[in-house]
Amino acid sequence: MSERHKSVAAAYIIFEKEGKYLLLRRQNTEAHNGLFSLPAGHVDSGESIVLSAVREAKEEVGVDVQPEDLTLVHTLDRNAPDFHRLDFFFHCTKWVGEVANCEPEKCSELAWIPKEEVANEIADYLKPVFHAIEERGTYTSQGW
User: Fold this and answer.
1) DSSP structure string for 85-112
2) Which residues on adjacent β-strands are paired with residue 41?
């Protein structure tokens, strides 16, 4: 009998304000250092994907988000070199608190980037996601 397939799930939050998305520049991480990404993180054991997004919003950018204020807009199904990765992207326009860099050891900068410029600023694996979201696509696969 073959070993069961294992996947790693992550939640990403696309914060939007006045036509701009919140991006964070990664540093001292395992991948994509120096590039912009989104507030995001792996789903912990015993945690739903939505609650993971709520937790990551607080941990990374210091804001409180309610689950009902998150809208799932895209799923990225990646055959990455290390694992099968399932990335869930939530759109958010409502939160409580002021956005702040709560993990300066992993993030060198926060920036509000106009939506039309985001694709020029982000890590390569995220570019097709933003293109798909613009086209109202809800699923992208990579590496299969």
Assistant:
1) EEEEEEEE---BS----S-TTTEEEEEE
2) 11
Q: Across residues 69-94, what is the average pLDDT?
A: 94
- What pTM did the predictor assign? 0.92
Convert the pLDDT of each residue in 33-52 to its tens digit.
778 999 999 999 999 999 99
C-alpha 125/C-alpha 142 separation (Å) is: 8
Buried b (16+ CB within 10 A) or exposed e, 94-103: ebeeebebbb
- Tell the residue number behind the tokens 């290390």, with chain if given: 82
Q: Which residues contact 38 (CB under 8 A, 6 or more apart)?
A: 12, 13, 14, 21, 22, 23, 24, 89, 122, 126
Q: Does 1 reside within a domain?
A: no
Tens digits of residue pLDDT in 127-140: 999 999 989 999 99
Tens digits of per-residue pLDDT, 3-19? 677 889 999 999 999 99
Query: Is 114 domain-assigned?
Result: yes
Residue 40 structural domain: 7-142
- The CATH number of the domain holding residue 51 is 3.90.79.10
Could you say which DSSP state residue 138 is in?
-
Q: State the sign of the Cα–Cα–Cα–Cα dihedral 47, 53, 54, 59.
A: positive
